[in-house]
Amino acid sequence: MVAPRWLRLDCRRCGRKQRPRYRKEPQVRGAGRVVFAAIMLLIVGTLNIIYGIGALDDANIFVNDTRFVLDNLNTLGWVLIILGVIQLTGGFSLMAGNTYGRVIGIIGGSLGAIGALLSIGGAYPWWSLGIFVLCIYIVHGIIVFGEDERETGRAAGV
User: Fold this and answer.
1) Which segment of 22-26, 34-38, 113-117 scores lowest on mean pLDDT?
2) pLDDT digits (tens, 9 = 90+) for 113-139
3) Would you give the DSSP letter of residue 68?
């Protein structure tokens, strides 16, 4: 049976082309949170590099009353720069979907959550609680990323 003329999408006489038919891509669970986590890693990595350069330069962004665990600001600067580079590479790797980025994201989010819990007794307890919830949200999103693909692979016997 031939489709009626008004139902056809392309017309051979007038030269109009057929509309493209789009395939619906399968949704991957947690993809949005993984992109959010990657962007957060990129932002935090950039800030840590800037803070590290400021600490190496002996800038006045660090007050004199603050006690550091490290010996001096030069050590803190190098630690922040190295941490920032690791976070930047983890963010780019997470954007690409690599395992290195997932591991760095889970470790960074877990350490951030622990740090936020330890600072709840400080001057800004609600801010610390909000950061804790954000870190848990990111870690959960990275862990469940792609979980539905593994389940369908197991069900299909692959």
Assistant:
1) 22-26
2) 898 898 888 788 898 899 899 989 888
3) -
Q: Could you tell me if residue 30 is left (phi over 0), alpha (psi between -120 and 50 degrees) or otherwise beta?
A: left
Range of the domain at 80: 31-144
Q: Write the DSSP symbol of residue 7.
A: G
Per-residue tokens: 56: 């190496």
pTM for the model stands at 0.66
User: Does some domain include residue 137?
Assistant: yes
Total domain count, the chain:
1
Q: Please compute Rg for the chain using Cα positions.
A: 25
For tokens 């979980």, the residue is 147
pLDDT in tens, 38-64: 998 899 889 889 888 888 876 655 556
- Report if residue 136 sits inside a domain: yes
**pLDDT at residue number 93:** 92
Note whether residue 81 is domain-resident: yes
Nearest to 33 by CA among 117, 145, 158: 145
Provide the token pair at 124. Answer: 């800004």
Residues belonging to the chain: 158
Sign of the dihedral defined by the CA atoms of residues 28, 30, 32, 36, in that order: negative
What would the two tokens of residue 142 be? 């990275």
